């Protein structure tokens, strides 16, 4: 399990800041190559709510946050300014929202009947593929968590269902991975978190 | 009657952007053939064969890209085509070679020091070709729908449906995207790519599924397969950025603080050092390649002694671009000193320069240039009128006669003529004075002007006092 050890080692080396706010434990990592990672956990359940990355472009400009887990708050002002072409809000919206025991993706705005969808697993490229019979939606995506620790995928862990115009894809986390997450969250709960709102201010 | 009503002002004009005609917009290149022989009239260039041949040699040097920090001075009387030659060089170098053109007085600003402005100009003229990953949307156009608001004013809204063999997505379009889609004449059945960062649209061709619609299709229509998989892809593209652009990207304050600090102004030398190191690293790894460009400073005599000594030093750097200057001064005072020097440039800098000189145009050359300008400005002119204009150009200046083309054309339009005749030329010649006649006029009526009671005492104006 060198993959798991590598990943934990990488997290340990990163510069970390921790903050408790709105019932969430927010952690910000900065890696030596200036890549930033921000995570938000539910304090009660320990579920991962948001994980996002921010990288530097080749020329040194800061790129926008990329969401791996969770979803960005819609900011209409910023959105209209930066890009002149956007997906219509009626298009399928793809998000990942994990539970403690599984990776889970939700694709909203899928208006077609349940027999329209296929979810396949490409074992060679370690990716999942969502297809539609009527050729309206197609997406190929990987599980970055599994890639980071260098683990292959197993089609037995994969299941999906469709209800309320939402396609839910579930992939059971392997036991090694659950153990690793426990280890990391134990480590994180040890780090001192600064509480929001009681920042010391000494007017001199 | 004089104030237009509101509805008149808000009239929306839907025509393709009009190209404005500038003083040198007829220049398309240097007009030399492969063996560097200048042709008499070519690519908007007329005469000045010697200077153009020299410029051609310099061009070869720039294209080879090996030699850094060479400097060239184009010297000649006003209106002998110095700027035209520089423009021609820029055109001949093409889009990928950075060409920065500034006027000597541009560097004097209160916001930044002279050397900072010069450094920025230098770094604008050095390009870096580098690979970058960008996000693109690639697909076949299913439908474009553009809605104009019923009132005729306000923002348009648009929708674009794109598909691949596997999927289909509807996009909302902004104002700029609608404009560029109409400009590219994108229609259903086209395969296009859109660069998400820049919004640039490229038409790859028409879909094979549309091959049977014979209507309105040129013989050069290219057919391509409908793309597969997802609409949004990541693609590596090679593009040229200038050193200055990299400087700006890396020196900008992040986040909302940028709103307060503003991003103009000086760039710290640490940032530049950092970037130079980075570029050197990329070069060694083979990730990037340097494209040395050209820095052109017009009216270079406006620079002062500090700038010149800075240039001396800057030209020695191996990152220096090829540096072209132009001046119309003879032996004159160097700005910021009391010393006289040829072209107003210190001797030590002059020593490093290759000097190209331009000579006044011959009568038949003036005729040619005027003819080219007539074509450029869409002016029909009779042969006799052109002869008269040539004569005016010879006796006054080329610039003055070029000005007359535009005004004479308007005069002929007003009398509903089909082409500009001698009478039109005569008319505008009497309406607008050239420089010589204007000073003649001044001498004649000097007493009637304001402040004429103060008799100038300087030695240079002696002649005027004698006349009056």
From TrEMBL, chain A:
<comment type="similarity">
    <text>Belongs to the DPCD family.</text>
</comment>
<protein>
    <recommendedName>
        <fullName>Protein DPCD</fullName>
    </recommendedName>
</protein>
<dbReference type="Pfam" id="PF14913">
    <property type="entry name" value="DPCD"/>
</dbReference>
<dbReference type="InterPro" id="IPR026224">
    <property type="entry name" value="DPCD"/>
</dbReference>
UniProtKB/TrEMBL annotation, chain B:
<keyword id="KW-0067">ATP-binding</keyword>
<keyword id="KW-0378">Hydrolase</keyword>
<keyword id="KW-0234">DNA repair</keyword>
<dbReference type="InterPro" id="IPR010339">
    <property type="entry name" value="TIP49_P-loop"/>
</dbReference>
<dbReference type="GO" id="GO:0005634">
    <property type="term" value="C:nucleus"/>
</dbReference>
<dbReference type="Pfam" id="PF06068">
    <property type="entry name" value="TIP49"/>
</dbReference>
<dbReference type="Pfam" id="PF17856">
    <property type="entry name" value="TIP49_C"/>
</dbReference>
<keyword id="KW-0804">Transcription</keyword>
<keyword id="KW-0227">DNA damage</keyword>
<dbReference type="InterPro" id="IPR003593">
    <property type="entry name" value="AAA+_ATPase"/>
</dbReference>
<dbReference type="InterPro" id="IPR042487">
    <property type="entry name" value="RuvBL1/2_DNA/RNA_bd_dom"/>
</dbReference>
<keyword id="KW-0805">Transcription regulation</keyword>
<keyword id="KW-0347">Helicase</keyword>
<dbReference type="InterPro" id="IPR027238">
    <property type="entry name" value="RuvB-like"/>
</dbReference>
<feature type="domain" description="AAA+ ATPase">
    <location>
        <begin position="68"/>
        <end position="370"/>
    </location>
</feature>
<protein>
    <recommendedName>
        <fullName>RuvB-like helicase</fullName>
        <ecNumber>3.6.4.12</ecNumber>
    </recommendedName>
</protein>
<dbReference type="InterPro" id="IPR041048">
    <property type="entry name" value="RuvB-like_C"/>
</dbReference>
<dbReference type="InterPro" id="IPR027417">
    <property type="entry name" value="P-loop_NTPase"/>
</dbReference>
<dbReference type="GO" id="GO:0005524">
    <property type="term" value="F:ATP binding"/>
</dbReference>
<dbReference type="GO" id="GO:0003678">
    <property type="term" value="F:DNA helicase activity"/>
</dbReference>
<keyword id="KW-0539">Nucleus</keyword>
<keyword id="KW-0547">Nucleotide-binding</keyword>
């Amino acid at each position: 399990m060198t993959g798991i050890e590598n990943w934990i080692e990488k997290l340990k080396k990163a510069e970390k800041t921790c903050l408790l706010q709105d019932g969430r434990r927010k952690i910000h990592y900065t890696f030596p190559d200036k890549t930033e990672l921000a995570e938000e956990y539910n304090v009660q359940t320990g579920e991962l709510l948001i994980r996002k990355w921010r990288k530097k472009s080749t020329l040194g400009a800061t790129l926008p946050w990329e969401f791996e887990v969770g979803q960005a708050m819609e900011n209409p002002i910023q959105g209209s300014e930066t890009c002149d072409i956007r997906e219509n809000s009626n298009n399928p919206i793809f998000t990942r929202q994990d539970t403690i025991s599984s990776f889970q993706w939700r694709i909203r705005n899928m208006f077609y009947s349940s027999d329209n969808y296929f979810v396949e697993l490409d074992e060679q490229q370690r990716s999942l593929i969502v297809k539609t019979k009527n050729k309206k939606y197609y997406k190929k995506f990987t599980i970055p968590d599994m890639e980071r620790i260098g683990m292959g995928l197993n089609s037995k862990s994969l299941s999906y269902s469709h209800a309320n115009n939402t396609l839910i894809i579930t992939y059971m986390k392997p036991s090694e991975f659950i153990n690793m997450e426990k280890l990391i969250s134990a480590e994180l709960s040890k780090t001192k978190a600064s509480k929001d709102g009681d920042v010391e201010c000494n007017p001199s | 009657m004089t104030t237009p009503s509101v509805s008149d002002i808000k009239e929306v004009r839907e025509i393709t952007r009009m190209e404005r005609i500038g003083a040198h917009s007829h220049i398309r290149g240097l007009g030399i053939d492969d063996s560097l022989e200048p042709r008499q009239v070519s690519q908007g260039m007329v005469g000045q064969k010697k200077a153009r041949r020299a410029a051609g040699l310099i061009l070869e040097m720039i294209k080879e890209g090996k030699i850094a920090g060479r400097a060239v001075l184009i010297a000649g009387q006003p209106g002998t085509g110095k700027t035209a030659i520089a423009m021609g060089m820029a055109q001949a170098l093409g889009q990928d070679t950075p060409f920065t053109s500034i006027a000597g007085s541009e560097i004097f600003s209160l916001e930044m020091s002279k050397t900072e402005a010069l450094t920025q100009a230098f770094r604008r003229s050095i390009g870096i070709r580098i690979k970058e990953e960008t996000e693109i949307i690639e697909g076949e156009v299913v439908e474009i729908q553009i809605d104009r608001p019923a009132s005729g004013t306000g923002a348009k809204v648009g929708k674009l449906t794109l598909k691949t063999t596997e999927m289909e997505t509807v996009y909302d379009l902004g104002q700029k995207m609608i404009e560029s889609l109409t400009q590219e004449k994108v229609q259903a059945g086209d395969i296009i790519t859109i660069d998400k960062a820049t919004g640039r649209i490229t038409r790859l061709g028409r879909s094979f599924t549309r091959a049977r619609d014979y209507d309105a299709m040129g013989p050069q229509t290219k057919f391509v397969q409908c793309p597969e998989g997802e609409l949004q892809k990541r693609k590596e593209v090679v593009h040229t950025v200038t050193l200055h652009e990299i400087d700006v990207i890396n020196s900008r304050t992040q986040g909302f603080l940028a709103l307060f600090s503003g991003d103009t102004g000086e760039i710290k030398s640490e940032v530049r050092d950092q970037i130079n190191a980075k570029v050197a690293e990329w070069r060694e790894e083979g990730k990037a390649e340097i494209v040395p460009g050209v820095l052109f400073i017009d009216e270079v005599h406006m620079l002062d002694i500090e700038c010149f000594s800075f240039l001396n030093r800057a030209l020695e750097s191996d990152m220096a671009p090829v540096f072209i200057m132009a001046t119309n001064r003879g032996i004159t005072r160097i700005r910021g000193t009391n010393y006289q020097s040829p072209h107003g440039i210190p001797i030590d800098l002059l020593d490093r320069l290759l000097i190209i000189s331009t000579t006044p145009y011959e009568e038949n050359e003036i005729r040619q240039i005027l003819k080219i300008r007539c074509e450029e400005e869409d002016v029909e002119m009779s042969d006799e009128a052109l002869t008269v204009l040539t004569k005016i150009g010879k006796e006054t200046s080329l610039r003055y006669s070029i000005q007359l083309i535009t005004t004479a054309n308007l005069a002929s339009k007003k009398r509903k003529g089909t082409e500009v005749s001698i009478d039109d030329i005569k008319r505008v010649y009497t309406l607008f004075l050239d420089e010589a006649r204007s000073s003649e006029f001044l001498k004649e009526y000097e007493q009637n002007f304001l402040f004429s009671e103060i008799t100038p005492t300087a030695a240079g104006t002696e002649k005027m006092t004698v006349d009056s």
